[in-house]
Amino acid sequence: MKVRKHLLKREKHNLKIDKGQGDVIMDFSFSEDIEFLRSNVRKFVKDEVEPRAMEIEENDHIPEDIVEKSKEMGLFSLSIPEEYGGLGLDMVGKCAIYEELGKTHNGYTTLIGAHTGIGTVGIVELGTEEQKQKYLPKMATGEWIGAFALTEPSAGSNAANLKTTAVKKGDKYILNGSKHYITNAVDGHVFTVMAVTDSSKGAKGITSFIVEKDFPGFVLGSVEQKMGLRGSHSAELFFEDMEVPAENVLGEEGRGYVNALKILANGRAGLAARNLGSSEKLLEHSLSYAKEREQFGNPILEVQAVQHMLADISMQIETLRALTYRVAWMSDQKMRVVKEAAIAKLFGSEVYNKVADLAVQIHGGIGYMKDYPIERYFRDARITKIYEGTSEIQRNIIAGELIRELKKKEG
Amino acid sequence: MNIYVLLKKTFDTEEKIAVSGGKIEDDGAEFIINPYDEYAVEEAINQRDAHGGEVTVVTIGDEDSEKQLRTALAMGADKAVLINTEDDLEDGDQFTTAKILEAYFEDKEADLILAGNVAIDEASGQVGPRLAEYLGIPYVTTITDLKIDGENATIEKDVEGDVEIIETSLPLLVTCQQGLNEPRYPSLPGIMKAKKKPLEELEIDDLDLEEEDVEPKTKTIEIFLPPEKEAGKVLEGEVSDQVKELVSLLKNEKKVL
């Protein structure tokens, strides 16, 4: 009886790629596993989420059954290692899935993106074994939704200017202050919160905490009315003598600012991948509309001005794709990606905004109408230049890295 | 309970299908699990979860059929078997498939075999019943409900919009109709786990079969796409003239009167 193993087949497949050119110098293909995962996510998004995107938009609410099915799919477990019930995917795999999730309503994408990104990564990267055991399995199933609470009225891009305080009292910390614009605040159960433990030390006096919404003194404020990302809810948080057990300090005391930057840096490739997916969806819409829409007796797809817009969209998309997956790959090789990840976040948001603008232009009047999805992408694109580090902050990071590299070279 | 699912890889009829040289072009076609077989996989998993046992998914195909088997494993099946005929068989029909399956099941002790009602490509619906005949076990087609209690099975069968209730016993072969269940999506953790599940690959000589044993009994003369739907014709003018024109068109052009 002949029993062949998967492995054999994979080797055969790789040989095909070689085609007698010796060693593979560069390989831009995804592994079979990643292709398989993403094709299933693509089908799920296409069949279950996309047909209800208009419903999400109109009701400013993601239907519970979609959230439930997404949890069953395992989409909430993307960032969590296998030993805690997650998928244990590397960055390339995560990005491939984010790209698929970007192809539908961005409010839905944001619920999952914020949870699997800034909402869980802190505990995965910095948590103690006890913290991981306690939080990650329930976050992997989506029973507990994660959120990240850094921003305050006085601390946006200047993240070190926090006013929320944490004072140690016995085996507890007492937190006072407020946060705003906190994605997933309404559905969130577990928050990574940054607060000042020593105001004399500036950025070095900030500590991160794992906060549960049931902690005494945790108050959910009003839900913010946004330009887009409907269905994803951001809100204010108030901490009124909120008691946080000392074992819920995340990472070391005084390292909260560095932790926050690390968590944000980790999510940048993923954001680029989501923007890539949304841009691809806009190209798909634009192509099919241009083929159908007739003016002056012909489909506008035959008009050179329209063709050039489509070509520009395609150029942006392919450039973003190459950049995104290279950063993800570098990150999986444990290479330093501070500069490249900032470039991907910045460029990804710019591409998405440019593509959304061109897509509205190709669609003309209907692109501006609420009964067609294009204007929704146009509004949703705008926040990507602001959240998780504005474009200006990304430029600061990029320039900072350039200067660092220069100094290193000059000694 | 030993549960088996007969699964077929088909092209996705939601995608564009091109025919050339009397064959459907493989290039560019998307392949999926035959949707009726998805009901069979789902039902098999549910029956296993209710009664214990093991689900084995069996397909006859080529190297690429592994993808559909992995999908079934990711949904929750325990084992998969690929009977790879790529190198051995030029052609095949329902007889070929049923003969190969008969040989495969010869030394198996199957309690329940599930198949799709039909495959959406050729829609013959023959393989299940033929196999049951060869194996000498009862079969029920187009089922929409299956309750198993010990050795007994109570089945609801779709009979052109009506329901027939059938009582029978295991071992049994059923073919699954839309409405039986709602097939699950393979979850991402399920996909990762599926990699570690056994996938056995056999060729027909492993089943002690020769090419002549399974030579098809039918011959496909031609394959063509249905004619493209033309736009309807709108008649205009006085109603009495329209009626006359309609009658004339039905008589002379469409020749239905």
UniProtKB/TrEMBL annotation, chain B:
Among its keywords, does the record have Nucleotide-binding?
no
Listed cofactors: AMP
Query: What Gene3D superfamilies does the database record attribute to this sequence?
Result: HUPs
Biological process terms from the Gene Ontology for this record are: carboxylic acid catabolic process
* Assembly information from the UniProt record: Heterodimer of an alpha and a beta subunit.
The record describes the protein's role as: The electron transfer flavoprotein serves as a specific electron acceptor for other dehydrogenases. It transfers the electrons to the main respiratory chain via ETF-ubiquinone oxidoreductase (ETF dehydrogenase).
Protein's recorded name: Electron transfer flavoprotein subunit beta
The record lists the organism as Virgibacillus indicus
